[in-house]
Amino acid sequence: MGSELKYLAVLAITVVALLHSTAAQETHVVGDKFGWLVPPGGHYAYEVWAAEQKFSVGDILEFNFTTGDQDVAKVTKEAFDSCNSTSPIELKTTGPANFTLDTIGEYYFIGTKDRHCELGQKIAINVTAHSGSPTPSPSPKPSPTPRGPVTYVVGDQFGWIVPLGGELAYSAWAYGKTFYVGDTLEFNFTTGEQDVALVTKEAFETCTLNTQITLITAGPAYFKLNVTGSYYFIGTKDKHCELGQKLAINVTANPGGPSASPTPVPAPTPRGPATYIVGDKLGWFVAGQNAYSAWAYGKTFIVGDTLVFNFINGTQDVAVVTKAAFDNCTTNNTVAVFTNSPVNIILNSTGEHYFTSTYSRHCELGQKLEINVTAKSTGTATSPSSPTTPSSLAPSAHSPAASGPYNSAPSMINGSGYFVSFLLVALAFFH
Fold it and tell me: N or C: which terminus of the chain carries fewer CB neighbours within 10 A?
C-alpha cells in the first residue's frame, strides 16, 4: 500500500509540473497582425516587436506568411548579419511556420527570398530561462547628445496614412529616435483624406475621437514639441486609428540649449518629365494592402512622367483599368494589359490613373496603384481632366505591345516633345 501511495504522489507531482510547463508556454506570433513579410519600416519593425516581448524556453515562434511568397530560415549570427541564406540551420517554406525555443540564448531568423533579408525581413531574439526565472536588468541607455532642433517627417516617405501592418509601422519609425524639446513633427497627408489629432493617452489607447486636444485637417501639419513628456497622435477619420494610424513618442529635455523654429518647407520647383520606378526596389508584386499607396504618397506626378513597372515575367502583369474596376478588383474589362517586364507607361493626361494585376486575387491582396497626375509643371498648375480613359495614356517606345483597346490608343510622346531614356533594371526591392 505504501509503494502505491508513493507512486501516486510521484505521478501527481509530475502531472502538476507538466501542467505548469504547459500553462507557462507562450506562442509569439511574429509581427502580430503585421505578419512575416518585407516590412515598410525596414528591420526596425521586427526589432520593435521583439523588444516588447519576453521569450522563455519552451515558447513557440509562429511566422505567418503566404506559402510561395515568403519563407523563414533559422540561421547563425554571421548569416543573419550578412543576410547569407546559403546554409540555413533550418528552412521552412510553408506558412504558418513554428519554431520551438528549446534553449536559452540568441536566435536568428531571416527570409531567404531575393533581397528580402537585406530589406528588413529578419529578426533576432534573446531567450531567457523558463518562465518565473529572474530576468537580468537591461543595460543603461547612454546620455543624450546635445544638438539643435530637428524637424522629423513622420513616417518619412511613408507619410501619414493607414499603414500596412497596423500601428507597428509608426512604432518602428519612432524606434531609436530621440525627440527633444524644440523639435518639430511634420505630418504629410492629403487634405480631406487624412487628418491628425494630438490626444490624451486614454484617447490614444481607446481611439476615442471626441476628446482631441488639437486637430489639424490640412496637410502638411506641424506640431512643435514644447514640453517634455509623452505625446500621442491619431487619425480621426473612420477607423483610421483602430487600423494603426497612431503614434506615441516621448520628448526629453534638449541638452543643446534653446530651441529654434523649424525649417520652412520649400515651395515646389517646376521641373521636366521624370521616370518613377513603381515601388522603387520593391518592384511590382503582391505587397499587401497600402504598400503602393505608401509608395505614391508625397510624390507629384506631372504630364510627361513615366511609370516603370518591374516584375518577373510569367508571375505578374500590369493592367490599366477604370476607377470602378480598380475599386472592385475586376479584371474582365481592362483598358490595357502588359505582360512583359519592364512595362513603361507615359502619363499623357492629368487626372486619376489606375493600375492593377489580372492575376487571381493579386488586386485584392494589394497589387494596385492609384495616382493623380497634375499639370505639365508643378509651377503652372491647371485643372485636372476627367479620369483615365483609353486615350489618356500611352506606352513608351520601349514598352511591349498592349492587348485590347489600349494598343490602339494614340501615343502623345512625339507631340509632347519629350523623350525619356532610362536603364532597364532587374526586379528589385525597397531600400
Answer: N
Edge-to-edge strand ranges of the sheet holding 246-252 = 179-180, 246-252, 229-234, 196-199, 214-216
DSSP result, 127-171: EESSTTSPPPPPPPPPPPPP----EEETTGGG-SSS-TTTTHHHH
Interval 142-162: pLDDT, tens: 565 677 888 999 988 778 988
Q: What cell numbers appear for 286 in the block?
A: 503582391
151-252: what fold? Immunoglobulin-like (2.60.40)
Can you give the pTM of this predicted structure? Answer: 0.40
Of the CATH numbers 3.30.70.2470, 1.10.287.3240, 1.20.810.10, 2.60.40.420, which one belongs to the domain with range 19-128?
A: 2.60.40.420
Q: Which CATH class is domain 275-416?
A: mainly beta
